[in-house]
Amino acid sequence: MVRYVNSAMGRVPTQIDYSDYRDVAGVKMPYKWSYAWVSGREEFSLTGIQANVPVDAAKFGKPTPVKRAIQ
After folding, report:
1. Greatest distance between any 2 Cα atoms in the chain
2. Is 54 helix (H, G, I), strand (E, B) or coil?
3. End-to-end CA distance of the chain
4. Residue whose C-alpha is closest to residue 20's, from 42, 44, 4
5. In the 8-state DSSP scheme, what is residue 22?
6. Nearest to residue 17, comparing CAs of 47, 53, 41?
7. Closest by alpha carbon to 27, among 50, 45, 47, 55?
8. Over the Cα atoms of the chain, what is R_g?
9. How far is CA 53 from CA 21, 25, 49, 50, in A?
10. Residue extents of the structural domains in the chain
11. pLDDT tens per residue, range 19-49
12. Which helix (H) or strand (E) holds 3?
């Protein structure tokens, strides 16, 4: 995938290349991808993907505010 973003320097390209597709619950998912932009490149790889895993409802709760000491 290549996309372009307009910036003060002009059009800036970003490219993402996907590879190492594996079957996950009947869907091919990329386990590796590389992300390249003007100032560098990063590579990511996954060791596993799980589909339809239940997520604890507490993860979606409102975070508790941080109490700060008055100085």
Report:
1. 58
2. coil
3. 51
4. 44
5. E
6. 41
7. 50
8. 20
9. 20, 11, 10, 6
10. 2-45
11. 999 999 999 999 999 999 888 899 999 999 9
12. strand 2-7
Q: Read off the pTM.
A: 0.65
Q: What is d(CA 69, CA 47) in angstroms, rounded to the nearest whole number?
A: 43
Cα 51–Cα 54–Cα 57 angle in degrees, nearest 5: 140
Q: At residue 24, what is the residue type?
A: V
Structure tokens at 60: 């979606």
DSSP string, 12-66: EEEEEEEEEEEEETTEEEEEEEEEEETTEEEEEE-S---SS----GGGGSPPPPP
Structure tokens at 2: 């290549």
Cα(14)–Cα(33) distance, rounded to whole angstroms?
Answer: 13
Phi and psi torsions of 10, nearest 5°: 115, -160
Q: Looking at residue 60, what DSSP letter applies? A: G
Task: Give me the residue label for tokens 């979606």.
Answer: 60
